[in-house]
Design brief:
Distance between the termini: 64 Å
InterPro entries: GTP_Pyrophosphokinase (IPR052366), NT_sf (IPR043519), RelA_SpoT (IPR007685)
Helix content: 40-55%
Number of helices: 6
Pfam families: RelA_SpoT
Shape: flat
Protein name: GTP pyrophosphokinase family protein
Number of strands: 5
Structural class: alpha+beta
Order of helices and strands: HEHHEHEEEHH
Strand content: 15-25%
Pathway: Purine metabolism; ppGpp biosynthesis; ppGpp from GTP: step 1/2
Length: about 220
């Protein structure tokens, strides 16, 4: 597996090191948003609501390196979320449709999948994670980087965003009452997702019955 070639024991220029990740992020955001545009262009409902992405800030990279005991010369191989993308979906079932679409792509090489939608974390966190390898074409040749895509509903994203900000504030140590309330709110958010899916299915069924009755008339 050919990862970024110019990795030194001490990274002296972080901008140069992160450039391929920035390049990959820009390309992938355009490609993933293109999936949504294609559905809309052909008059279909898109399973993608919107796409966001970021390259992890250097202080966050260093903090994670310390926490996970990752050395700088192993950084490209051992830190899989330096470049991270999020795909937001309207409904839970859309998550798996998007995952299937990503599996069929030839421009990414999926290395690992983690389903936290049906098997949520103990905190209540839900999302579908995909770790993949992506080739970046540069003047010095092809550089393969690791990146991560998180696929989730809007409700899951709202909960995860709030939980992340609270986690930062409390440095990962939540009071028991707050921890329990967060878990309950995560379950409430998931029930909302399930409820919206049921409403959509009922509407589709009623529309189908209405169309059938009109044809019979």
């Amino acid at each position: 597996m050919a990862y970024i070639k110019e990795v030194f024991l001490v990274i002296k220029n972080w901008n140069n090191f992160l450039f391929p990740y920035e390049q990959a992020l820009g390309e992938l955001k355009i490609k993933l948003r293109g999936i949504r545009n294609e559905f809309i262009q052909f008059g279909k409902r898109s399973p993608i609501e919107f796409v966001t992405g970021r390259v992890k800030p250097v202080p966050s990279i260093k903090e994670k390196m310390t926490r996970r005991y990752i050395s700088e010369n192993r950084l490209p191989q051992d830190m899989e979320d330096i470049a991270g993308l999020r795909i937001m979906c309207p409904f839970v079932e859309d998550i798996y449709q998007v995952v299937d679409l990503l599996r069929k792509r030839t421009d990414i090489n999926i290395l690992e999948e983690r389903d936290y939608v049906n098997k949520e974390k103990s905190s209540g966190y839900r999302s579908y994670h995909i770790v993949f390898e992506y080739p970046v074409e540069m003047t010095t040749g092809e550089h393969k980087i690791l990146a991560e895509i998180q696929v989730r509903t809007l409700a899951m994203n709202f909960w995860a965003t709030v939980e992340h900000s609270l986690n930062y504030k409390y440095n990962g140590v939540f009071p028991t009452e707050l921890k329990n309330r967060l878990q309950q709110s995560a379950e409430t958010a998931f029930k909302l997702d399930e409820g919206m899916s049921e409403i959509r299915d009922e509407l589709i069924e009623k529309q189908s019955e209405y169309s059938k009755n009109n044809r019979d008339d």
